Backbone:
């Protein structure tokens, strides 16, 4: 790790006025600094900022510095969020990591984290060796000829399925944007991963109410049950009335460069019987547009099966 200057602002205004990268729980930034992937000369420890709190009065309002473990344990949090949090990291990491930091964590692509390897995200124009190299864990949706790295956050997948918005605060004031719109697919500029402006912070996460009769769940397929990143995951909310699906929202992870919403599957489900056959028919389009690589073609059928499994769990299990 290279030398850097550490400051600890006590107010949001002080943090926004000062230079440097923001440090919250540190579970991503410190790792990348140790690897020399990131070498900021100034770092701001923002842990003292008043950006905490969980309010379930009307939907869900979450301060960006809330810990993952506290949100997972809070009553009234939808099952899809709780399950995504509990499956995303070890208890020790959940005790440290913040909600805002989790949503902005960097990819776990091995080429990105290896400074001896080319990587367009880390060094624009240097190339993407994953396209022809080891790519079993990489994306099949939302990719480009410049980058095929998957988005790492389980929580972001759940929140995108819930039409979550985030409040951003910067030197020019506040704005609120849909979380799905915050993330950028790589295109020809994979180094630009999100729509945050320089010096801007996520300060609050805003989840709308699920509505009466809605059930939700999060299914994560991985190589092992303990602390592992997703091969594929699915966040689902579904409402069934008189045996038919009246509404559904679905996002998948582990297979795309950003949390990936499935509007075609949602549309196919509305009005359909809540049966395994209908779920399988609707999920047929889940991987439309996929560009599998030499080592990850299995993700195309896997994303369909994961969506079906999540729908069955949400409609037949006890998930709220």
Residues:
């Amino acid at each position: 790790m290279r030398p850097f200057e550490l400051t600890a602002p006590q107010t949001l205004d002080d943090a926004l006025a000062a230079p440097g990268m923001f440090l919250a729980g540190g579970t991503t930034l410190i790792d990348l600094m140790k690897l020399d992937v990131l070498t900021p000369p100034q770092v701001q420890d923002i842990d003292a900022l008043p950006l905490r709190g969980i309010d379930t009065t009307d939907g869900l309002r979450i301060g960006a510095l809330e810990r993952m473990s506290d949100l997972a344990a809070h009553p009234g949090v939808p099952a899809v969020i709780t399950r995504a949090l509990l499956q995303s990291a070890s208890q020790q990491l959940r005790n440290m990591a913040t909600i805002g930091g989790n949503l902005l964590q960097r990819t776990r692509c091995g080429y990105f984290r290896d400074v001896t390897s080319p990587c367009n995200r880390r060094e624009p124009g240097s190339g993407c060796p994953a396209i022809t190299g080891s790519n079993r864990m990489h994306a099949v949706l939302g990719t480009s000829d410049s980058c095929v790295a998957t988005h790492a956050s389980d929580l972001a997948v759940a929140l995108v399925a819930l039409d979550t918005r985030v409040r951003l605060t910067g030197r020019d004031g506040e704005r609120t944007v849909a979380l799905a719109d915050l993330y950028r697919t790589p295109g020809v500029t994979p180094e630009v991963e999100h729509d945050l402006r320089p010096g801007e912070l996520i300060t609050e996460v805003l989840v709308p109410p699920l509505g009466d009769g809605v059930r939700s769940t999060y299914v994560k397929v991985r190589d092992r049950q303990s602390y592992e990143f997703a091969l594929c995951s699915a966040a689902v909310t579904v409402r069934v009335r008189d045996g038919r699906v009246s509404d559904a929202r679905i996002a998948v992870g582990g297979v795309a460069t950003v949390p990936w919403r499935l509007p075609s599957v949602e549309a196919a489900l509305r009005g359909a019987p809540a049966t395994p056959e209908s779920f399988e028919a609707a999920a047929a389009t889940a991987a439309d547009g996929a560009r599998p690589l030499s080592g990850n073609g299995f993700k195309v059928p896997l994303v369909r099966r994961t969506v079906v499994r999540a729908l069955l769990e949400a409609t037949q299990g006890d998930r709220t």
About this structure: The radius of gyration is 19 Å. The CA atoms of residues 218 and 235 lie 5 Å apart.
